[in-house]
Amino acid sequence: MNIQRWISRREPNWQRLDALLRQVEKKGIKSLQATEIRELASLYRSVAADLARAQTQKVGNTLTQSLQLLTTRAYTQIYQGSRRQEWQAVVEFYSWGLPAVVQQTFPYIATATTIFLLGALIAWWYAWQDPTFISLLVPESLITQVRDEHKLWMGSIVGIEPLASSNITINNLSVSFGAIAGGMTGGIYTTFLLWFNGLLIGALATLVSQNNLAYPFWAFVFPHGSLELPAIFFAGGAGFLLARAILFPGKYNRRDALKFYGSLAVQLLFGIIPMLIIAGTIEGFFSPNPSVASPFKYLLGMSLFVVLVVYSNRKRG
Prior knowledge:
By secondary structure, the protein is mainly α. The protein contains ten helices and no strands.
């Protein structure tokens, strides 16, 4: 290989890559146009090949080191820069994107909330009229513990907080995923999950009220329930979005409707996951903690719910 001829032929590429990198290092990757970004990636691959050839042909330490530095700079800007952009996109989504999606899909979330609350109210009414109704939904062992021993069941979490927290989170995620996936049944399974969980909460609320344990029960529920229940309502809303795409695609064909409404459902899912992780941690470590006074538990629950409402109604200025 004629080294001098090879260098003179390849040197313009090296200089061009250096010029692009200087601009990126000074002003950021966004200062480049789309064609320049593609050129940067192409030059990086080309110069990396030149480096490999220089090392193989032993063209000299100075040139090899220069090419090594050039490729390192390019790698840093292309790959680490893209990672920075990814993190910026994540921050942007949770700062503004998710609240916008919640506002856009609010009718679906409201429908899911209504089904749940209606189930809870019906269970509450029936359980007061007929106490045997509770046994249709609540395990007999739990009923016995509350009625005969006048104790709540949350104390079993104390001492196994990490395991309980992870199990709670996994269970809540499975319910949420089921509610979302239930949209593929035209919303039938989503409706069933929301209705059944509403009935269960209503029956439990009646059971503890009948045995004068409502105050400590809701003190346990409020801290994590302020995030856990809205997350389930979000999941129900996501399921109904998918059902809408299948049953009422409107101006879209069903494939395009699933893409559009499915995208909204996935964005809601990205909001649900951190909510349930936080809720599971609170339910495992804070809610059942006997050393925390009940008023503080109520205060935390109400505070978290207010923060969630304010966040969900956030608009870009």
